Write a sequence for this structure.
């Protein structure tokens, strides 16, 4: 059987370049050429495309971040770990009870993928502060959709701030499905932006059950702003790329962790 590694598509490569830039603060063509198995000329074209989109600044031999944000833009998040996210979403849907139920969705690429699977459930009420999710679900009138107001945050398409938190304070939710930038047994669940963290914390506080949807790269990772403690989470659904040590630590904290196998129906 062949063990040759599948070459990444350009969309996947651009997304990964932005992720590496966010994590390390710089990109170097020579190092990346070996990492991705493509030529230096190909990588220079990739960096030029991202620079044209004002997502980074070219330097001699590489690139650096443009501005102060270290977040991957939403369109590029969508192409990362897509198969893993779909497997996570299918497992998440199986956790929903039959009959009428209120769910909440924060912003994020995995929660957006989940939203696309919901229109068949006419018995659901969906509460969200994510503009892209709201736009998708508004096309399906069988679902009841509650959109939390607030100030739009273009980096994540989320509505945040006191107005959003005021509305959330008057809502009760059965299950909150949460997207995160990091989840760690000690640091809890975190995101890149303090305003987003505060608004999403308000959403979690209104939920009877909190389920974190996170591909394996998010486990054991900590980012700037804490959204909640690990004890606020009832279940984490992730994929088999998650570090075993991070999974074990979260389980020791008393949180159920479901690990899905990409391309299979098995869970563990």
């Amino acid at each position: 059987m062949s063990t040759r590694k599948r070459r990444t598509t350009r969309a996947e490569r651009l997304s990964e370049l932005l992720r590496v830039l966010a994590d390390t603060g710089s990109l170097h063509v020579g190092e990346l050429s070996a990492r991705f198995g493509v030529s230096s000329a190909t990588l220079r074209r990739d960096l030029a495309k991202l620079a044209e989109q004002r997502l980074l600044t070219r330097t001699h031999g590489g690139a650096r971040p443009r501005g102060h944000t270290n977040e991957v833009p939403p369109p590029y998040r969508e192409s990362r770990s897509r198969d893993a996210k779909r497997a996570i979403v299918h497992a998440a849907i199986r956790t929903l009870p039959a009959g009428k139920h209120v769910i909440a969705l924060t912003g994020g690429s995995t929660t957006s993928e989940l939203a696309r699977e919901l229109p068949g459930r006419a018995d659901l009420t969906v509460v969200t502060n994510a503009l892209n999710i709201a736009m998708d679900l508004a096309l399906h009138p069988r679902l009841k959709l509650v959109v939390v107001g607030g100030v739009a945050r273009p980096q994540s398409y989320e509505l945040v701030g006191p107005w959003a938190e005021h509305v959330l304070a008057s809502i009760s939710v059965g299950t909150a499905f949460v997207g995160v930038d990091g989840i760690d047994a000690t640091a809890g669940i975190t995101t890149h932006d303090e305003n987003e963290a505060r608004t999403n914390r308000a959403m979690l506080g209104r939920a009877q059950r909190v389920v974190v949807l996170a591909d394996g790269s998010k486990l054991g990772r900590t980012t700037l702003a804490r959204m909640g403690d690990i004890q606020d989470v009832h279940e984490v659904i992730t994929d088999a790329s998650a570090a075993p040590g991070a999974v074990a630590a979260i389980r020791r904290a008393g949180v159920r962790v479901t690990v899905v196998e990409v391309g299979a129906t098995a869970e563990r």
User: Anything to note?
Assistant: The two ends are 26 Å apart (CA to CA). Residues 48 and 129 are 33 Å apart (CA to CA).
